[in-house]
């Protein structure tokens, strides 16, 4: 028999946005259900040192932070479901969603916090050295490379912005791009080329990330020239892959307005084009992509949900 769970507030995703929404929703008496998805805890569960989340003077561990957020959400009344949504019907309220387990979820409101994943190169050494010198977020990890050599891989706005940001910490930043011109906005390119601490390697692709030392960490990148095929090596302490992000919105294609894959929300809110459907965190944020901003948006979503349901309840009372 197929299990059915009904709730006033269903949350998809259990990263900082989803769990913050759950905490605020539970405290408002909405008894939210959180469907945790394929990566319970979100991207922070694969992040080791976290030094920029407010409230902790010492470095904390990403998985520990998410464990604490989940424990807090459960403590105030949120229910966690270890499931992955595979089908969704947003044509009318209550919304109906089907899990990979076969479970049916019926919800008066839906908060989408499915996040976004960094795009990776898929070359040898990349996965093994993640958190040991290889990163996809300069804002998150740049501080750890104060006075060290770093490289940034990419040629769009993200890569150029990351390279410029890293000059706050490093005097030796190298941008590696597989073509002979950048895709970034002209004003960003001008700032990049004018900076004395940034150099660019054109027509170079990363062949592999190289580890070494004790404890093992990134020591360099092997490159291959995309025109001549010539191989070369660059020594570095940190490698930042900046080739974009992929928001987890496949389920919502054709059902919600998307902008480059990100869910579109009404400015200053978490409301989507469908009344009762809200989105928060990296799934709608192509600019900041930080745990603290995701958590803040999760709070906003819960408050938006509470207001929406109060208005619906009032209208039903008047009609009765």
Structural class: alpha/beta
The separation of the N and C termini measures: 35 Å
Please give the number of β-strands: 21
Assembly state (oligomeric): single chain
The helix content, as a percent range, equals 10-25%
DSSP helix count? 6
Q: Quick one: overall form?
A: elongated
TL;DR?
With 320 residues, this protein is an alpha/beta fold. The protein has helices at residues 16-27, 62-75, 138-141, 157-166, 186-194, 291-319; strands at 4-12, 33-35, 49-50, 60-61, 79-81, 85-89, 95-99, 104-112, 116-118, 134-135, 149-153, 172-176, 198-201, 204-212, 217-225, 231-235, 238-241, 245-247, 258-259, 262-263, 277-279.
Write the layout of secondary structure elements.
Layout: E1 4-12, H1 16-27, E2 33-35, E3 49-50, E4 60-61, H2 62-75, E5 79-81, E6 85-89, E7 95-99, E8 104-112, E9 116-118, E10 134-135, H3 138-141, E11 149-153, H4 157-166, E12 172-176, H5 186-194, E13 198-201, E14 204-212, E15 217-225, E16 231-235, E17 238-241, E18 245-247, E19 258-259, E20 262-263, E21 277-279, H6 291-319
Parallel strand pairs: 1-2, 1-8, 2-5, 8-21, 10-17, 11-12, 11-17, 12-13
Antiparallel strand pairs: 3-4, 6-7, 7-8, 9-18, 14-15, 15-16, 19-20
Describe, in plain words, how this protein is organized in 3D.
Strands 1, 2, 5, 6, 7, 8 and 21 form a seven-stranded mixed β-sheet that branches. It is built from six helices and 21 strands. The chain is elongated, with a radius of gyration of 22 Å. The longest helix has 29 residues. Strand 1, helix 1 and strand 2 form a beta-alpha-beta unit.
């Amino acid at each position: 028999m197929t299990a059915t769970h009904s709730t006033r507030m269903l949350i998809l995703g259990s990263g900082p946005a989803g769990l913050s929404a759950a905490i605020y929703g539970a405290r408002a008496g909405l008894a939210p259900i959180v469907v945790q998805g394929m990566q319970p805890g979100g991207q922070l569960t694969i992040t080791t040192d976290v030094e920029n989340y407010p409230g902790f003077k010492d470095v904390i561990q990403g998985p520990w932070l998410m464990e604490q957020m989940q424990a807090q959400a459960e403590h105030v009344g949120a229910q966690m479901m270890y499931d992955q949504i595979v089908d969704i019907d947003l044509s009318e309220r209550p919304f109906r969603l089907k899990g990979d387990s076969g479970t049916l979820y019926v919800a008066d409101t839906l908060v989408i916090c499915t996040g976004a994943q960094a795009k990776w190169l898929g070359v040898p050494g990349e996965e093994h050295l993640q958190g040991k010198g290889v990163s996809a977020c300069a804002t998150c990890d740049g501080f750890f490379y104060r006075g060290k050599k770093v490289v940034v891989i990419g040629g769009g706005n993200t890569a150029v912005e990351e390279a410029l940001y890293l000059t706050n910490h490093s005097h030796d930043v190298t941008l590696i791009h597989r073509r002979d011109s950048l895709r970034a906005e002209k004003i960003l390119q001008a700032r990049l080329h004018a900076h004395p601490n940034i150099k660019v390697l054109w027509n170079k692709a990363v062949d592999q990330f190289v580890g070494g030392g004790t404890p093992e960490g990134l020591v360099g990148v092997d490159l291959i020239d995309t025109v001549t095929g010539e191989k070369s090596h660059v020594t570095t302490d940190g490698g930042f892959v900046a080739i974009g992000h992929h928001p987890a919105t496949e389920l919502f294609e054709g059902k919600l307005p998307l902008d480059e894959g990100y869910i579109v929300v009404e400015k200053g809110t978490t409301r989507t084009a469908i009344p009762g459907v809200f989105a928060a965190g990296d799934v709608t944020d192509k600019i900041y992509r930080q745990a603290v901003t995701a958590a803040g948006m999760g709070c906003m979503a819960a408050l938006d949900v509470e207001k929406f349901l109060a208005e619906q309840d009032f209208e039903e009372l008047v009609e009765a």
